[in-house]
């Protein structure tokens, strides 16, 4: 294409005052613009911002406009466009005597002079039948004559897809008789997700004339590429963190029989005073490294998404029952413990024999261990693991949960609109948890294969590559489940 084919396309954010235009503008732009305050008529002048551009020279502009106030009066004034007296009242008299009304007229002038289409925000927390400002403002927009896409803002925390769809449908039905309204979408400034922004671009395509579509197609592709890059980098962050946890080990010093009996007492819930045992110290060190890695990884996700804030409130729940141990077990000590416990601890897991850490098979102390013989089990375990020393590591169950918690953390960050201020860890919606676990169950076999590779000496970077592929498939599936209307090939 030639430079002359490049085009500038403008979208205007318009709404009743104090519905959240500037807040949404901040979220879409990924930077702080304008003034945000819970008060009417905060924005007094229309402001133009570059939303996205292309290498070919196309530019998509976003106009943040003052909010509508007295829409009935505005419609009457708009009908007098071109009248000298009307111009005088607009430019001089209203500016000093009725500044909010003058600001509203600035919004109309910006749309008339610059906008190819209007993004009209409504307060989704209201029933459309109770939003009395909508009717006169629709009349104003019809006088302007630009195509309109309605955006439901202030929708609240993310909800299941069917609940959000019902709310959108209520607004579509309410505005069905307005010929300039070409559609309605949910796009909350505080809790939208990037796939919803892709749906926004798809919807805007229907608002533009044919001669604008080639340029807008290039702009939409650039917008998608930006978000896809962020998504891919986010999956890499999660995969690398998970791979580090998978290969992490902490060696134990031999605590002797007394130390083992003390660990056994701990596993049975018996208190012991004094300093931590070598095993407890190793477990704590492993957990602290993971905790630090989760924090730094979440901070990286926050930065990738153009947000501010840190994972200050990130708390790792240390589940001692999920530690794994690889140990060169003394056959004599194993026989001693096995003989002492075989009758008294029937039905408890074999991890009690080593103080709360699994021997890897989940065998029962009692009939199974008694049949095999404690010394024989020790020999089989050492042979299977090939370990010459005691090490603490994370079990497969913990790694599975870390994969789930990582995807949930990604969703939390990806939904946080910049207009909401600094990122803070939100409560996780139940439908997110269900979607994540459903999709990870589909990847369970592949993940189990990856966990087994860590015991075969596969390097961390190789595990990270395999994990990134699995997490990407799972995350795309989750996004498709949460936003079926926004799903497109590649999303």
Mind describing the biggest β-sheet? 6 strands, mixed
Choose one word for the global shape. Answer: elongated
User: In what range is the share of β-strand residues?
Assistant: 5-15%
Mean pLDDT: 76
Strand order of the largest sheet: 2-3-1-4-5-6
Helix percentage: 40-55%
Point out poorly predicted stretches. 35-43, 313-321, 335-386
Topology, number of strands: 11
Cα radius of gyration in angstroms: 30 Å
Listing every helix as H and every strand as E from the N terminus to the C terminus, the arrangement reads EHEEHHHEHEHEHHEHHEHEEHHEHHHH
Quaternary organization: single chain
Q: Could you give the distance between the termini?
A: 28 Å
Q: What's the total helix number?
A: 17
Characterize the structure shown.
The chain contains 17 helices and eleven strands. The chain has 491 residues and is of the alpha/beta class. The strands form three sheets. The protein has a six-stranded mixed β-sheet, sandwiched between helices. A three-stranded antiparallel β-sheet has the order 7-11-8, with helices on both faces. A two-stranded antiparallel sheet has the order 9-10. β4, α5 and β5 form a beta-alpha-beta unit. α2 (71-78) packs parallel to α5 (134-144), α14 crosses α15 and α16 packs antiparallel against α17 (460-482). The chain is elongated, with a radius of gyration of 30 Å. The two termini are 28 Å apart.
């Amino acid at each position: 294409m030639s430079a002359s084919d490049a085009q500038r396309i403008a979208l205007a954010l318009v709404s009743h005052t104090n519905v959240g235009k500037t807040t949404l503008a901040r979220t879409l732009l990924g930077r702080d613009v304008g003034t945000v305050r819970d008060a009417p008529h905060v924005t007094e002048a229309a402001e133009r911002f570059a939303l996205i551009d292309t290498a070919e020279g196309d530019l998509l502009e976003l106009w943040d406009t003052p909010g509508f106030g007295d829409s009935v009066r505005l419609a009457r004034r708009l009908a007098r466009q071109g009248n000298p007296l009307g111009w005088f009242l607009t430019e001089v008299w209203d500016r000093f005597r009725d500044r909010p009304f003058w600001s509203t007229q600035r919004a109309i002038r910006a749309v008339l002079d610059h906008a190819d289409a209007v993004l009209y925000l409504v307060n989704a927390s209201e029933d459309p039948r109770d939003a009395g400002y909508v009717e006169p403002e629709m009349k104003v927009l019809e006088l302007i004559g630009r195509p309109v896409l309605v955006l439901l803002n202030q929708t609240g925390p993310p909800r299941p897809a069917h609940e959000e769809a019902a709310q959108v449908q209520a607004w579509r039905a309410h505005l069905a008789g307005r010929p300039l309204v070409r559609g309605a979408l949910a796009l909350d400034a505080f809790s939208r997700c990037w796939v919803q922004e892709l749906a926004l671009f798809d919807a805007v395509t229907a608002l533009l004339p044919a001669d604008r579509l080639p340029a807008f197609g290039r702009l939409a592709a650039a917008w998608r590429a930006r978000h896809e890059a962020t998504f891919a980098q986010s999956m890499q962050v999660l995969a690398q963190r998970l791979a580090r946890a998978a290969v992490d080990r902490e060696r134990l010093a031999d605590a002797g029989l007394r130390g083992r009996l003390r660990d056994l007492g701990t596993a049975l819930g018996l208190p012991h005073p004094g300093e931590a045992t070598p095993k407890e110290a190793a477990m704590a060190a492993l957990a602290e490294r993971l905790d630090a890695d989760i924090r730094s990884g979440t901070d990286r996700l926050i930065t990738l998404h153009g947000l501010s804030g840190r994972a200050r409130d990130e708390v790792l729940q240390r589940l001692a029952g999920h530690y794994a141990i690889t140990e060169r077990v003394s056959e004599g000590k194993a026989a001693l413990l096995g003989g002492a416990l075989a009758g008294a601890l029937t039905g408890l897991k074999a991890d009690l024999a080593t103080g709360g850490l699994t021997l890897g098979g989940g065998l029962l102390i009692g009939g199974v261990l008694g049949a095999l013989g404690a010394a024989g089990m020790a020999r089989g375990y050492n042979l299977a693991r090939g370990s010459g020393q005691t090490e603490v590591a994370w079990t497969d169950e913990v790694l599975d949960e870390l994969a789930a918690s990582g995807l949930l953390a990604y969703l939390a960050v990806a939904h946080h609109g910049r207009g909401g201020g600094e990122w803070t860890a939100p409560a996780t919606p139940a439908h997110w948890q269900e979607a994540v676990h459903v999709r990870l169950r589909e990847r369970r076999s592949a993940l189990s294969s990856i966990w087994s590779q860590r015991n075969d000496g596969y390097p961390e970077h190789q595990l990270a590559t395999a994990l990134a592929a699995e997490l990407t498939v799972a995350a795309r599936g989750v996004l498709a489940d949460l936003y079926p209307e926004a799903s497109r090939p590649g999303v």
